């Protein structure tokens, strides 16, 4: 099981796919098809470790921004 703070390595294929948003502007979606996941190290411990394990996973909002944040 992967928990927040676990170090992993991912190998796969990146695809940069163009699409048009609702206003007709051309945008791009970066997609990763994962071929392999490798555990690289121990999970980073913090004082909230027990709370993190008990917390319910958060669901994504229905509102997604079309812009990539980086």
Task: Walk me through the topology.
Layout: E1 8-20, E2 26-39, H1 49-54
Antiparallel strand pairs: 1-2
Number of helices: 1
- Quaternary state of the chains: single chain
In whole angstroms, the N-to-C terminal distance is: 28 Å
Using only CA atoms, what is the Rg? 17 Å
Spatial strand sequence of the major β-sheet: 1-2
Low-confidence runs of at least 5 consecutive residues: none
The average pLDDT is: 76
**What is the number of strand segments?**
2
Shape: elongated
Largest sheet: 2 strands, antiparallel
Q: Strand fraction band?
A: 35-45%
Report on the structure:
This protein is mainly beta and 70 residues long. A two-stranded antiparallel ribbon has the order 1-2. The chain has one helix at 49-54; strands spanning 8-20, 26-39. The mean pLDDT is 76. The two termini are 28 Å apart.
